[in-house]
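General statements about sequence and structure are easier to judge against a single worked case. No coordinates are needed to read the tokens, only the vocabulary itself. The sequence in question and its structure tokens are set out directly beneath this paragraph.
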Amino acid sequence: MIPNTRKLGLEGVKFNAPVGYFEEERILKNDFLVDIYVVFEANGKTESLHNTIDYTHIYQICEHFFKMGAMLIETVGQNILDEIKQNYPFVDIICIKINKLNPPVKAEIKNSFIELTYQKET
């Protein structure tokens, strides 16, 4: 971990979105739970969003890519990660976990998931 860091995140963000490999999944939509956090260098006390990350903007980024839809949750996750990197170049670590609730598998499965992690090269 980087010295003097801040970790900011959202947990259990729910989306109902047209994301899935099968056409029926994109038509009927699937439920997803997202956990996401970012780590960045802290520069002392702050009362301004200009010196930190606005978690409502992180939510809006996630919402945008879920609404767009995709065949794979990996695609949605990578798009979210890339957009955060572009908007917040000072971020050192990004971790996104996307849980797909009740995936279309012939078994009783609570969820499937993907997890993507980005760490800035030093």
About this structure: Strands lie at 5-17, 30-41, 91-101, 111-119. The longest strand covers residues 5-17. The chain has a mean pLDDT of 91. Residues 64 and 103 are 22 Å apart (CA to CA).
